[in-house]
């Protein structure tokens, strides 16, 4: 299997408490005493990635944390760029200084992109991005805009912000950002207070998710994103999974990636060895249809 993309969870640390984040819901359900902060071991990662990274898109994004809180991010980005990778960094962007951002953004080039996840305007976005800080986000945006890296504002419509999209788009233009993207969620609960009122903002899979949770819809046909995007996932504590959906605690503990966890320990193997071993998994996934696939990748 040719690796087209990687998704690295550099850290599971975050300053935010977004109500639907996997980190927040895990801590709310099991308590903070069950949570352990982790940072990806950079030496282990380097030996694990025994492949040519030229042209491979590496997404630095958090299922549980925000990549900008990774202590070794400068060294990691510098190493990835020397390997010829392109980088997509997805962050809320809070609580870093201008000096920190200037050091980071000089490591990127015009093939890379920084995505700022800001769901609203400065007056309302913390309704979801709880504990976020607009002044420090603006510092990050200005540093990125002044560098070679591309910039994108990603905006999830909610009930509290669906009326301020045009204002946010205009603010992104004033700040000099390259793109503004409205990215509807499809993870709504039934009667969800966060759910936007406009159908166009409710997400393509909205009804499929509600049915999955409320009825026997877990054997539906799937269109696996791993067949298309091919973004192999590495967790902050150093374990390989075929995609980030597997790492969601609601599914993870029932999978072979947990039950045979040490088999996927990146300190003990390489990605070439694992992909050779997992050929049957990727070939049979449409017939096996694990729960994390029917939930996240149903055929629409």
What is the CATH top level name?
Alpha Beta
- Number of beta strands: 8
Sheet/helix structural class = alpha/beta
The CATH superfamily title: Aldolase class I
Overall geometry: globular
Overall mean confidence score, pLDDT: 91
* Estimated share of beta-strand residues: 5-15%
* Rg, Å, rounded: 19 Å
Q: What distinguishing features does this structure have?
A:
TIM Barrel; 300 residues; single chain; globular; 34% helix; alpha/beta; 8 strands; 13 helices; eight-stranded mixed sheet
How would you summarize what this structure contains?
This protein is of the alpha/beta class and 300 residues long. The protein is 34% helix and 12% strand.
Structure description:
With 300 residues, the chain is of the alpha/beta class. It has one domain: Alpha-Beta Barrel (TIM Barrel). 34% of the residues lie in helices and 12% in strands. It has 13 helices and 8 strands. Strands 6-5-4-3-2-1-7-8 form an 8-stranded mixed beta sheet, with helices on one face. Strand 3, helix 4 and strand 4 form a beta-alpha-beta unit. The longest helix is centred in the middle third of the chain and has 12 residues. The radius of gyration is 19 Å and the shape is globular. The two termini are 26 Å apart. The model has no long low-confidence stretch (mean pLDDT 91).
């Amino acid at each position: 299997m040719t690796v087209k993309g990687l998704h690295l969870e550099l850290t599971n640390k975050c300053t935010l408490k977004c109500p639907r984040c996997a980190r927040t819901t895990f801590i709310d359900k099991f308590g903070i005493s069950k949570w352990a902060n982790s940072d990806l071991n950079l030496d282990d990662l380097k030996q694990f990635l025994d492949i040519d990274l030229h042209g491979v898109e590496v997404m630095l994004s958090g299922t549980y944390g925000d990549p900008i809180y990774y202590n070794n991010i400068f060294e990691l980005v510098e190493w990835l760029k020397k390997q010829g990778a392109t980088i997509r960094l997805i962050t809320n962007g809070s609580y870093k200084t201008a000096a920190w951002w200037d050091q980071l953004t000089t490591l990127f080039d015009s093939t890379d992109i920084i995505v700022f996840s800001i769901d609203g305007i400065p007056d309302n976005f913390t309704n979801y991005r709880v504990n976020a800080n607009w002044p420090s986000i603006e510092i990050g945006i200005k540093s990125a805009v002044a560098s070679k890296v591309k910039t994108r504002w990603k905006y999830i419509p909610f009930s509290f912000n669906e009326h301020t999209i045009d204002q946010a788009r205009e603010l992104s233009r004033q700040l000099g950002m390259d793109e503004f993207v409205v990215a509807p969620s499809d993870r709504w609960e039934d009667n969800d207070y966060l759910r936007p009122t406009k159908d166009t903002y409710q997400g393509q899979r909205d009804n499929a998710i509600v049915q999955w949770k409320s009825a026997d819809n877990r054997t539906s046909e799937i269109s696996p994103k791993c067949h298309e995007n091919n973004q192999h996932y590495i967790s902050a504590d150093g374990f390989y999974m075929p995609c980030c959906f597997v790492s969601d605690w609601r599914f993870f503990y029932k999978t072979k990636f947990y039950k045979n966890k040490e088999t996927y320990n990146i300190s003990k193997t390489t990605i070439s060895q694992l992909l050779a071993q997992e050929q049957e998994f990727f070939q049979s996934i449409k017939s096996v249809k694990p729960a994390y696939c029917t939930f996240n990748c149903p055929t629409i």
